[in-house]
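User: Can you fold this complex?
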Amino acid sequence: MIATPPVASGPAPSAIASRPDRPVVLSCQGIERSFGGLRALKGVSLEVREGEILGLVGPNGSGKTTMVNVVTGFYPPQGGRITLYGDDVTGLAPHRVAQRRVARTFQNLALFKGMSVLDNILIGRHVHMRPSALGALFYWWWAEREELAHRRVVEDVIEFMQLQDIRDEPVEVIPLGLQKRVELARALVSEPRFLILDEPMAGMNQEEKEYIARFILDAREARGVTILIIEHHMDVVTAICDHVVVLSYGEIIAEGPPAEAIAHPSVVSAYLGERAAKRQRGGAAA
Amino acid sequence: MFYRRAGLRHTRYQDERQLFPLAFDRGLVLTVLAFLIAAPLLLDRLWLTGYLLPWLIWTSAALGLNLLMGWAGQIHLGYGAVMGIGAYAGVHLVRFGVPLEIAMIAGGIMSAGIGTVFGAAALRMKGIYLAMATLAMQFIVDFVISHNAAISGGTLATLQVPAVRFLGVPLTSDWATYYFALFVCFVITLFMLNVKRTSFGRALAALREKDYAAQILGVSTFRYKLMAFWVSSFIGGVVGTVLAVAYLRAVSPDQFHLELSIQILAMIIVGGLGSVLGPFFGTALILFAPIVLNNLLGSVAATFGLDLPIDMRAHLPLLAYGLLVIGFLLYEPLGLAKLYANFRNYMLVWPFRHAQR
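Assistant: Here's the predicted assembly.
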């Protein structure tokens, strides 16, 4: 289904083998973050390499979303250091992080109600535009050319995400699966180098999940985006991720290629309890 | 029916993004504009200066407040004070002999500067707390204006506006002041329509709906909240000057009290938040409903020979007007503009209602 000749289609073993060679996109070292007495992140260190899809998984409340919020500047870390393409971005405000061509989607949809799908996606171009009140006042001499140029980019992404039919619909009336796709389109239209997806498939049926998985893979192939994805559907994680980091209670408990990381005994016990982990170990011995 | 979308085949983005893509809408707007331009020939003096002129001026102000409340989602209860600052700054400059065109802009900048300082509260506060902060602005500005003889000329003083010219035309005749107000209203309306379809307006709307999502798309909340206050207060200041020069002709502190702020707030809420059309409807309702209701009551009392006590005749229209506003808030919170949009959507596919999406 991937149109462009793939360099590495899907989770090829070569991707894992070559992991150390690729340049580091995001590097987090010893990230600390507490909310009152709760230590949500206890010295988490992780690296995302260029061109890979990194899966961040873990049980509910393990600190995945907190981690992403720390990286994107919503919660400045209380300890540790974050670098993006080698630049220190620790504690930078979200809009400054966005200017470094990082985009993200949210776990609970964060589309702008009362606007059309098209306008929602157009906002994604904000970092590339120069909005001003005077531009609006002198629209025909000032803003129109810019608007139309960016509209062209937006239309490319609309076509890529197959949203042509619903372009003019108000965003709140379309089904959830499509809303998630609009949010992904809005993130992609800013031409990010690094894309963070927070549960892009939550609440979706099998078909919608497969669609989104396809779009994520295509985005990587066609646009060269590096992706960090938080996801609960383990079938998806094993299918599309190159590397998986498992969090539990704010600590990394396992890391590695998807199948191995997920089968790690500490991961099994974190998800299913100690007994299940023991049974698995017993089964493996027998 | 009239609003036909069938047969429209836009082949360029600018055709699709034009202000009124439907031919009927364009015709309607041009008809209304033609009527407004021909109004001095068609209407007598009372209608022109008693109804149309205040309607245009208050609509301009409501549009300015709508940018802040409807687009950027920041509540403001001190818009009357913002207009007052502009009016006093403008009138003082005009009295010094500064041309009106420059005095208007200077009044706008003065309002924008002070309005943005108070608007900075919005960086820390939201909703009801911001309402209190802007209310404080209203009272502080009222106090400073009336207690500062250099500004108001004394607590009970009024400041006369001298004879002024706009673009070389002396604003002495009724039609000259009318066209002056129409021009200002036209420019502000055009600006608001364009804000709706540019990145500036989208950034403000994004801030209103989900500020965290707007931030990660690169919209700086700091910058855009202050920009919203700046632009909205600038419009308020300019309209304040226009109000003083074209309508009041003499300014006194009590003209810019809380009543004016609440009146303009009511106009955009009844008209429709975040709509360009809304303020036009809302202003008409708020300004003229009491008058119409009063006349209605008078004629009803005359026909049925009712002998209403004088205080009842004075209060009943106000009662009905209050009920009208509450009714709108209850049954159509998005205001008169939404009612019109519903009607338009219905007529788009009439009589084939099943075709409605």
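Chain A is about 40% helix and 20% strand. Chain A touches chain B through 46 residues (CB under 8 Å).
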